Amino acid sequence: MRVYNCGHCGHLVFFDNVQCMHCGSALAFLPDQLTLGALTPAPEAGSGLWRRLGSETPGALYRPCYNQSTWGACNFAVPAASPHLLCVACRQTQRLPDLSDPSHRLRWARIEGAKRQLFYTLARLGLQPTDEHAPAGAGPAYAFLADLPGTPAIVTGHHGGTITLNVAEADDDERARLRVALHEPYRTLIGHLRHESGHFYWDRLVQGGGRLDAFRAVFGDERMDYAAALQAHYARQPAPDWHPQHVSAYAAAHPWEDWAETWAHYLHMVDLLETAAAYATSLSVPEPGTPPPLREHVADPFATPAPGFDTMVRQWVPLTLLLNSLNRSLGQQDAYPFALSPGALRKLRFVHDTVVEQRAN
Description:
- The protein has three domains: about 5-85, no CATH class; about 90-210; about 215-360, no CATH class.
- It is built from nine helices and 13 strands.
- The protein has helices spanning about 65-70, 100-125, 170-180, 190-205, 210-220, 225-235, 255-280, 310-330, 340-360; strands at about 5, 10-15, 25-30, 35-40, 50, 60-65, 75-80, 95, 140-145, 155-160, 160-165, 280-285, 295.
- Helix 4 (about 190-205) packs across helix 7, helix 7 packs across helix 8 and helix 7 (about 255-280) crosses helix 9 (about 340-360).
């Protein structure tokens, strides 16, 4: 995520902070303005209300999301005039595990944190409304559920506009077990949510946006038997020939999964480039026996004008090399264990063009 500055003292603060560690000001993310704001109590305006400090809209009033005041599990604020107790992001979660179980509560809070990060990126891309009065279904709905004795296991997936996630995925050991069992190089909460959001936006942007023929020309025909394709994928080791045309082995299972995996990679790209740009990162890749190359500042994908897709890709490659090298220096695995082939880049460009076209409408 990008970084922010405290509206009271100017100190560096971060997307999920609830307090400035320098001046002690209360912080909350303000979805209606897509920024992190410093707040001070405003009891004269009403019980439980807070006033924003140091902004272009001085004195704007907010209150904490119910999930913050009750569970300490959200840092989004609610505009004072809103009729809702929950913030615009928390209202998307339609079903919850039993929160009287402390382990469920902890897992749910972790997943909601990842969901807020996805909410932010989708909103910056113009795909997720932040209006308090946005109609139901304007963005994904969510069900975060736990396995119960005597009932079928909760399967992560998307159906009919709702993204379901088994809350066990919030446990590092469970994700690591499944990553090994399923031969996956990468498995994270934000990765799950980005992937499943791809299915949601396929329905909206491809099928509902008149792009089916263009999609099939790039990804293949999604009318092939989906259940049979997934069964065949899981019955074998990853196909050795997936790399030239796909971003991952799982993407080769079916055109729908190809789109969802590519969509998730595009969100990875946008988010990481924005973070690097926020730190004024500049890049060059040294080559032996050549003069030092010119350094290039990473472009913010949300800048005006926005960088083109070719610029994003040109900066993405050395940025992920740097990221992986930094991880290795600390004895960690590669944060981005992928290498994008020309076929995968063609599909990423299709996703980019689809998003850009949607924003223009």
